[in-house]
Input
Amino acid sequence: MPTDASISADERIKSESFTTRMMKRPELGAIGGVILVTVFFLITADSAMFTLSGIMNFMTPAAQLGILGIAAAMLMIGGEFDLSIGSMVAFAGMIFGVFTVNLGLPLIVAIPFTLAFAAAIGAVNGMIVIRTGLPSFIVTLAGLFILRGASLVGLKLFTGGSTQLRGVRDAVEGDMLAPIFSGEAFGFLFSWLAQMGLIETFKSGAPKVPGIPVEILWFIALALVATYVLLRTSAGNWIFATGGDSNAAKNSGVPVTRVKISLFMLTAMAAALVAIITVIDAGSTDARRGFMKEFEAIITAVIGGCLLTGGYGSAIGAFFGAIIFGMVTIGLTYTNFDQDWFQVFLGGMLLLAVVFNNVIRKRVTGER
Amino acid sequence: MTAPIIHMENIKKHFGNVIALNGVTFDVTPGECHCLLGDNGAGKSTFIKTMSGVHKPTDGTISFEGKPLSFNSPRDAMEAGIATVFQDLAMIPLMSVTRNFFMGREPQKGSGIFKRFDVERANEICMEEMRKMGINLRAPDQAVGTLSGGERQTVAIARAVYFGAKVLILDEPTSALGVRQTSNVLSTIARVREQGVGVVFISHNVRHAMAVGDRFTVLNRGQTLGTAAKGEITSAELQDLMAGGQELAQLEGSLGGTI
Output
């Protein structure tokens, strides 16, 4: 039996430096990426990119993608994929359009029903994955086509032949819930700041940025809640455990089935939330909405440090991953580069992130 | 001798026309280490799965703390105080020691929607419990993947003991370990036994069993060949029994009439 002295200091373990400790955080790659991309655009882009309005410009698409990306990250930590979320945006957009325009329901009814509808489809996805034991990749790939097709057919059905459903803006005009899901928040603050001369204004004296687009607030709130749940609740521990080894988790009393189905419902609801926000914003919905978003969301999660095998990752990482995405998409328009470099950049970023994550995983688990 | 915590009498288990267990009698008393020895295919796994509630016996009785009992699920057995550390250990390498330790049974603080995983307390308990087992963690957020096989085994044992195991079933805990790690695990078993937990130690390594065992039961072809206390049997005899190379008549003599 070792004595206290011998166990209190094990000479074979070197003490860890601050950098080594930081190297083990899953979100490190994404934060490094944000710094890199910021430096890149500070050098190459027009200075307008980092003004207040420029920041809002790239944060808005980042937020829309980030809401999906954070949900996708949580599902990936739980060990599953959902390729149907892009199509789900179109489908939920259609459902929402039909509720508000065709049925004329107020938002207080239309929004919960849209979310519930999406959650139900998410639960079905989850149940198929669990019952059949098939990889979620293939099950939700089917969902990708089914929902996209159903959106096309459904839109034609409800509009009498068009693949676009218009009139959402008129339908929600004046609804008391509309400000929570559309437009800009904290307008009063921004006009006050404009009066004080602290932010840029137009000649009329109105601020150039009328407020913070609501999706940015949803994005930040979701990132905070997701991080709290993952790191500070039992549910978070169950998500990591389920993704790490679902059999071991089950043997230790983790309700694996419930965790997975809830996560599928979460991603579907995140897609529905993005649909609601963007449809109100655009005033119409069409069948191409959310196209390719499933892949962008997964890329966001991977840049954010999620392992494809599950059990590891972070919501904050996905948050920064989405910001990188937004900066690159919008940032290139501020530079002299051809904007289509965007996809090349994206692919490169993904490759780099996967390689980097692999190294990190080996460090964490001490594999040699 | 104190009364057994769990007593299993003449347990039989059939899977269709395969007779996996054909009359196994086994008991464990508090603070003893009862070794269950047997070669591959002897029925060790089936037997411990019956004991831990995974299988229901086809025939035979189980009494727990003197009362007849029938487990419907592993959860029932766990709640009664029978903890099993299977070979895969139910550990997740990417997760920290603390998160693994409390997996599925996280300590809570706060209430309502503010109910949360009390990470600070969990870390403290985890460090303390591991220290009791003779392992000083670098940090409670150290990933289990960085631990050696023996240390992982110890985490699994410490976890079972912390959550109130009265009977601890260890399924071949030393089979994949090196010499030094094996001795660490064996000394952990000794410590657990001192705390009054009844340990069921499954192994096919006689030397490991002899090092910590108080009593030895040999299982062969689904039947118990007999139970012997420490000192009544030599390791060579146990080895022969496991291999089934001796006739029962000879066994009776060597076991001193304990069959």
Notes: The two ends of chain B are 18 Å apart (CA to CA).
